[in-house]
């Protein structure tokens, strides 16, 4: 188990993360509402995407983002290729990084922080880049 390195991590990091996460939600509440409505329309349903990610001490949490690809499937029930499912709205979200703003809720919950490494999804955790 990881122990805090110094006073910042021990006493200030979590309160700072919580404050920044809450401020992001309060300041951008209107943007969340707009993107939820637009996402529901353009993504044909649920505007949110969740993905399991490794967090502190390897604990798995669900990262939340705005969906940038719809869930269209072929006649056999398989998802269509990414390039087909990524529409103009999704490309706009990715280009502007607006798909990332729901992560403020992960920060408030304590699953992730404002400062720190971004863990890749679980499919890549065992891959060595060396």
Automatic annotation (TrEMBL):
<feature type="domain" description="Bacterial sugar transferase">
    <location>
        <begin position="13"/>
        <end position="117"/>
    </location>
</feature>
<feature type="transmembrane region" description="Helical">
    <location>
        <begin position="21"/>
        <end position="43"/>
    </location>
</feature>
<protein>
    <submittedName>
        <fullName>Sugar transferase</fullName>
    </submittedName>
</protein>
<keyword id="KW-1133">Transmembrane helix</keyword>
<dbReference type="InterPro" id="IPR003362">
    <property type="entry name" value="Bact_transf"/>
</dbReference>
<keyword id="KW-0808">Transferase</keyword>
<keyword id="KW-0812">Transmembrane</keyword>
<dbReference type="GO" id="GO:0016780">
    <property type="term" value="F:phosphotransferase activity, for other substituted phosphate groups"/>
</dbReference>
<comment type="similarity">
    <text>Belongs to the bacterial sugar transferase family.</text>
</comment>
<keyword id="KW-0472">Membrane</keyword>
<dbReference type="Pfam" id="PF02397">
    <property type="entry name" value="Bac_transf"/>
</dbReference>
């Amino acid at each position: 188990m990881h122990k805090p390195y110094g006073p910042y991590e021990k006493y200030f990091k979590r309160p700072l993360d919580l404050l920044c996460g809450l401020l992001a939600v309060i300041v951008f509440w209107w943007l969340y509402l707009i993107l939820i409505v637009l996402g529901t329309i353009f993504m044909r349903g649920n505007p949110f995407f969740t993905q399991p990610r490794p967090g502190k001490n390897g604990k798995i949490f669900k990262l939340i983002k705005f969906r940038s690809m719809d869930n269209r499937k072929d006649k056999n029930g398989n998802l269509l290729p990414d390039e087909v499912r990524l529409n103009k709205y999704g490309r706009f979200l990715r280009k502007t990084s607006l798909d990332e703003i729901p992560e403020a809720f992960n920060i408030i919950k304590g699953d992730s922080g404002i400062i720190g490494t971004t863990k890749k999804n679980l499919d890549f955790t065992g891959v060595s880049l060396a």
